């Protein structure tokens, strides 16, 4: 009877050790699988992050190209307007005339103006004078105004035509923008040419 008890105990211990070894093996295998899955997910995450970085860089490059294309288009429009103005027969006796008067947003609260001032086709003397750029706007329901060309002056000296540009910085929330540009002759305060642009 004692022998049977010893044999039963020994057999039970063997089964317990076998079961423990099996459980440990399964746990080890499960841990390896989990670690492999984590490594795979980490690799996928790194790949996706790299792809996002590449797409972001490509997007930024496309935005830069679009901005450059818009600037090139604006310059081409100015050139076309300039040559069209030379073909026109009216206003030959005028001292000068604006054939391009453009205002574009660069970023919130900052705008760039581009002007093309053409000398009268019957005139041979040099185009001399000064430029004044005024911008009216609404900010929180109140009217506002900024001006360039008063202090300091914006001198204009050109033969046949003058390309003029600069930046205006109304408040970031400004609306109903109206740019009013005036070209004054060399003497006095008489306006020789003017143009307006509203956005």
From TrEMBL:
Stated name of the protein: DUF6776 family protein
